[in-house]
Design brief:
This protein is mainly beta. The chain has one domain: AOC barrel-like (Beta Barrel). Helix content is 7%, strand content 49%. The chain has one helix and eleven strands; from the N terminus they run βββββββαββββ. Strands 1, 2, 3, 4, 5, 6, 7, 8, 9, 10 and 11 form an eleven-stranded mixed beta sheet that branches. A hairpin with a 4-residue loop joins strand 10 and strand 11.
């Protein structure tokens, strides 16, 4: 089984600065293929689990979850930290009907500086209808050019920060651009971005 690999990039080429008392904006990106450490789920998706040997999330308490862990890179490709993405499929999802709703928690960890936790609800119907469902039905790779904006309006917030980011507040949104999914290689090709608007206390 081929690995699914995602690279996380920081648009400005540097980690977030401390915008004391004012709102700042920063965007983290994921792109394939490079810096993924691991990805796993219950086994029904045509992406991962990877690397080979990573356990699937088959237990009842976690079978609706998705987990990703990777390295965090800046614009020049320098590793500046680590990231995790944890998702749970919500009860109003129905893949057969083209409906996928998630609750998602991202954690951006910058060693020696601190971490930021970002929580959101996602609506991924376009991803399911255009990419996932055709691939599952045919078993054939999908190629295309799909832009996504998955964050449900009003659902996103920065929920915690540590170190330099203690007391952080704000919101954000997740976007994506996909160009391929190969169910045989278990490879997703594209980019995702998490754009944060935040404020730190004085």
């Amino acid at each position: 089984m081929a690995d699914v690999v995602l690279r996380l990039r920081y648009r400005t080429g540097q980690a977030p600065a401390r915008p004391h008392g004012r709102v700042a904006e920063r965007t983290f990106f994921t792109s394939s293929p490079d810096d993924l450490i691991a990805v796993t789920h219950a086994g029904a998706l045509p992406i991962g689990p990877s690397p080979q040997g990573v356990p699937a999330l088959t237990e009842p308490a976690v079978r609706n979850a998705f987990m990703l862990a990777g390295k965090l890179s800046d614009e020049q490709g320098h590793i500046i930290g680590l990231v995790t993405e944890l998702e749970v499929v919500l009860p109003d999802s129905d893949l057969a009907a083209g409906r996928l709703r998630n609750r998602t928690l991202w954690t951006f960890f910058l060693p020696g500086r601190g971490a930021i936790a970002f929580d959101e609800r996602e609506q991924q119907d376009d991803f399911v209808t255009t990419v996932i469902r055709p691939v599952l039905q045919t078993g054939q790779p999908w190629t295309g050019d799909l832009d996504l904006s998955t964050t449900v309006p009003g659902s996103a917030s920065i929920v915690a920060g540590t170190g330099e980011f203690a007391g952080i507040t704000g919101t954000g949104r997740e976007t994506g651009h996909l160009t391929g999914l190969d169910p045989i290689a278990h490879t997703l090709t594209g980019t995702s971005g998490v754009q944060l608007q935040y404020r730190l206390p004085r």
